[in-house]
Design a protein that fits this description.
The chain is of the alpha+beta class. 24% of the residues lie in helices and 17% in strands. The chain is built from seven helices and twelve strands. The strands form three sheets. Strands 1-7-6-5-2-3-4-8 form an eight-stranded mixed β-sheet, with helices on both faces. The protein is globular.
Length: 279
């Protein structure tokens, strides 16, 4: 269990840009158990969060999600109808409900994060949130563990696991005659082509919005999705700090001027110089 060392602060107050980074770190570094307490949950567009939870489940980490029972405050949308949540539940995510839940706590055997952040796209991308980061081995961390045991876990009701329907058998089709193989092409006598221009090189198979993390086409000139670009366009500050790498999608400090993290920048083809890239 990670404990607070002599040089580590027992409590750290996190600003909005650091909360998601610490949440992903909490999930990524957990080895035994993760508890996610969020009254309101919509994660279909929070693809980085889904990937981190999937990775934890593959490591055989026990992951539990506590949500608020559906009532007037949760709206008409059924949380359990989420495709991303359904897939995580099939992978082993434990989901439990309880009435009147309003606390937001993210907990592992190494860290605790108390925050105003819900697992919602609006909380991740639009709301002004604050968080408190605690290390295991501190009195504050133990107080959070006690709160979970006394106030959350005993009053929660386990949501039944989704039924897994068997995959349909593919329709039987009559076999088709095998087409004869074509003879190999003769070697071309044309001169070798000149090296491609930088604009023709596919650097990454796909990109990510540097503000919300959603997947999109890799484009160094426009590393924001349509919605986030519309917000950014109102001010047009190319050095404004963003949250994700345009290449790998990892939570990194980037900007429109420099949309790649250091490892992704180093993967750029040698044919591209800094002057070829629109920073």
């Amino acid at each position: 269990m990670a404990e607070a060392g002599p040089r580590q602060a027992r409590i750290a107050i996190l600003n909005p840009s650091d909360i998601q980074t610490h949440l992903f770190r909490l999930i990524d570094e957990a080895e035994r158990r993760i508890v996610l307490v969020s009254p309101y949950v919509r994660i279909d567009k929070l693809r980085n969060l889904v990937r981190y939870i999937q990775s934890a489940l593959k490591r055989k980490v026990q992951v539990s999600l506590f949500v608020r029972v559906k009532d007037f405050s949760t709206g008409n949308e059924d949380v359990m109808a989420s495709e991303a949540l359904a897939q995580l539940r099939q992978d082993g995510l434990d989901v439990q409900e309880l009435k009147d839940l309003h606390a937001k706590i993210y907990f592992s055997e190494k860290h605790a994060l108390i925050t105003s952040l819900n697992l919602l796209e609006s909380s991740f991308n639009n709301s002004i949130e604050i968080g408190t980061w605690l290390l295991a081995g501190t009195p504050e961390y133990e107080a959070v563990a006690t709160f979970l045991k006394r106030e959350i876990e005993p009053t929660a009701t386990k949501v039944a696991a989704p039924a897994i329907s068997p995959a349909p058998s593919p329709p039987t089709q009559p076999s088709e005659p095998i087409a004869p193989k074509r003879p190999p092409r003769a070697a071309s006598t044309r001169e070798s082509r000149p090296p491609p221009k930088s604009d023709d090189i596919v650097i990454f198979e796909g990109g990510h919005c540097i503000r919300c993390g959603d997947e999109l086409d890799f484009n160094m000139d426009r590393p924001l999705c349509r919605d986030c670009h519309g917000v950014w366009k109102q001010y047009g500050a190319k050095d404004y700090p963003e949250k994700f790498c345009h290449g790998c999608g990892a939570p990194k400090k980037t900007s429109v001027a420099r949309p790649l993290c250091s490892p992704c920048f180093k993967e750029l083809p040698a044919i591209l110089d800094d002057e070829d890239i629109a920073f």
